[in-house]
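Running this now, will post back.
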Amino acid sequence: MFSHFRHDIEEMTLVPSSGGAFEVTVNGEKIYSKLDTGEFPNEEELFSRMSS
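Update: finished.
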């Protein structure tokens, strides 16, 4: 993900968690949550949501 958007990302933070949490937030907006869906996203899905 970083390689694809490296020119657009000003800051990236990894927040450790437990219980299978995997959430992606862009500009303060949650665009994906494994806790909500129960599964990891594929790259194309994340790229599409980040580009919207």
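The two ends are 15 Å apart (CA to CA). More later if anyone needs it.
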